Amino acid sequence: SQQGEEDPQALSIQEGENATMNCSYKTSINNLQWYRQNSGRGLVHLILIRSNEREKHSGRLRVTLDTSKKSSSLLITASRAADTASYFCATDGYSGGGADGLTFGKGTHLIIQP
Amino acid sequence: DTEVTQTPKHLVMGMTNKKSLKCEQHMGHRAMYWYKQKAKKPPELMFVYSYEKLSINESVPSRFSPECPNSSLLNLHLHALQPEDSALYLCASSQIGGVNTGELFFGEGSRLTVL
Is A43 in contact with B108 (Cβ distance < 8 A)? Predict the structure, then answer.
């Protein structure tokens, strides 16, 4: 099965700075999503970008998708202490077949220093 | 109501016990999922019910048994678990299932400890 690989695995920045996380995946997708998880809690959906889209914005979030490189990036602008969390990319769609559910990448743990 | 509710929040069980995790959603979603998450790891898909059809992840041991009594409820029956099964078990739902899965709505998880 395919799996997204995020980098960096951990990122620590000062409040107010921008945070960029990257994700790479292996096979064809229908869409790519980003989720956030506070420590030990459930995941919260942030944004979905379809395979025919190149960029999408939602508030302080900007997501890009490059299907030729099989990669995506998540940019959080003007970071806040409350943005401290783990961020996962997730992909669906399996080339040549079908399967339900999302496959999650390894995640980036983001720490915002006040 | 946009919640996925999981019970119990915490569960401690011995290796000979039989217990169940429960999940409920009232959003009219037609697909429900069980994920397992170990510390500092991503969630791993265990089972999917999509339009009340079960998709099985073949790497899941038979000591985990899912049940979907109706489109709003999802159970995970646990029997003869091992200490390495200790993890956060996450339930999620989506409006539709299939290969073009949209947004997943997650519950807060059930933290399982196997002694």
Answer: no
